[in-house]
């Protein structure tokens, strides 16, 4: 195999580029130059399995079955391609599969200054495919730069707030401590948050389990902290690339305003998302003020 190595300087932050890689909608925008309708299924955390997929002319699902070998938020992603996907099967052993796998596809993000980030790719390719893949990666990096700098597919921001009758530091403690998070982090009484893991530092991870009390469904709400100042603000990037910011403002000796802003997802309506998140914030207020 040969290795393709290319870089592009993008006038944006590492968070925007990271979001363009891991968010399903934004991913489709820049990978369309490789194959129209390209998409992925899976996660971007270390150890996650992920499929990079498309449909061929006959309607078959084709692509690569891979694993995230390494993931360092806003810095580095290493993807190990393991096999070829065809519909519901994965081919690890055929001659065609051995042309493409096992191989690595690595992404590097380097913040150059406050306005620019350098994005570098290193991709293993079959010798015979080197020229064609090198050319298409040139197009891919141009498209990624365009998507990031024009903020294509921009998320809609939603903001909501609550005035909490409690001192600033108490509010911060209830917001960030797992023992308190599990008491308020749900929108209705038929749901709960049975587990909360929170590593509260820049680059730290949080994972909250949200579940219906009857056991019918559950999901993980998770992300990585990109910046925070105690008793002031928290900024994090969710695992689908969306950003979220929480401000804590001292209003009086025993009053604190919490202002939450986040990028809306594209599955539920904006109104439904506003209602759900405001309900969680109202529940937080109730728990703190008891």
Write up what this structure looks like.
A hairpin with a 3-residue loop joins strand 12 (218-229) and strand 13. Helices cover 27% and strands 43% of the residues. It has 290 residues and is α+β, with helices and mostly antiparallel strands. The radius of gyration is 21 Å and the shape is elongated. Helix 1 packs across helix 2. The longest helix has 20 residues, at 130-149. The protein has helices spanning 14-22, 24-31, 95-100, 130-149, 168-176, 178-184, 270-289; strands at residues 2-10, 39-42, 49-55, 61-72, 76-86, 89-91, 103-111, 117-125, 157-164, 191-198, 205-212, 218-229, 233-238, 243-252, 255-263.
**Helical region count?**
7
Report the CATH C-level class of the largest domain: Alpha Beta
Overall average pLDDT: 95
Instruction: Write the element-wise H/E pattern from the N-terminal end onward.
Output: EHHEEEEEHEEHEHHEEEEEEH
- Structural Rg: 21 Å
């Amino acid at each position: 195999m040969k290795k393709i190595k290319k870089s592009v300087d993008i006038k944006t932050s590492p968070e925007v580029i990271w979001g363009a890689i891991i968010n399903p909608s934004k991913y489709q925008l820049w990978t369309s130059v490789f194959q129209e309708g390209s998409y992925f299924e899976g996660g971007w955390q270390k150890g996650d399995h992920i499929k990079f997929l498309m449909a061929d002319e006959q309607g078959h699902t084709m692509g690569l079955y891979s694993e995230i070998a390494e993931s360092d938020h806003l810095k580095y992603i290493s993807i190990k391609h393991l096999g070829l996907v065809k519909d519901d099967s994965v081919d690890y052993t055929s001659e065609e599969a051995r042309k493409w796998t096992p191989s690595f596809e690595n992404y590097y993000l380097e913040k150059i200054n406050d306005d620019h980030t350098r994005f570098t790719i290193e991709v293993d390719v079959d010798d015979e495919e080197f020229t064609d893949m090198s050319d298409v990666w040139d197009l891919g990096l141009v498209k990624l730069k365009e998507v990031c700098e024009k903020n294509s597919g921009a998320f809609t921001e939603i903001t909501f707030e609550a005035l909490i009758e409690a001192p600033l530091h108490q509010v911060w403690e209830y917001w960030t401590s797992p023992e308190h998070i599990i008491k308020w982090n749900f929108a209705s009484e038929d749901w709960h948050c049975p587990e909360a893991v929170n590593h509260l530092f820049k680059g730290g991870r949080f994972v909250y389990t949200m579940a219906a009390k009857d056991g019918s469904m559950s999901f993980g709400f998770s992300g990585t902290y990109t910046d925070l100042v105690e008793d002031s603000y928290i900024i994090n990037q969710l695992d689908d690339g969306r950003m979220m910011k929480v401000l804590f403002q001292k209003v009086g000796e025993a009053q604190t305003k919490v202002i939450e802003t986040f990028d809306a997802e594209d599955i539920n309506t904006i109104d439904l998302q506003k209602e759900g998140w405001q309900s969680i914030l109202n529940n937080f207020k109730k728990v703190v003020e008891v």
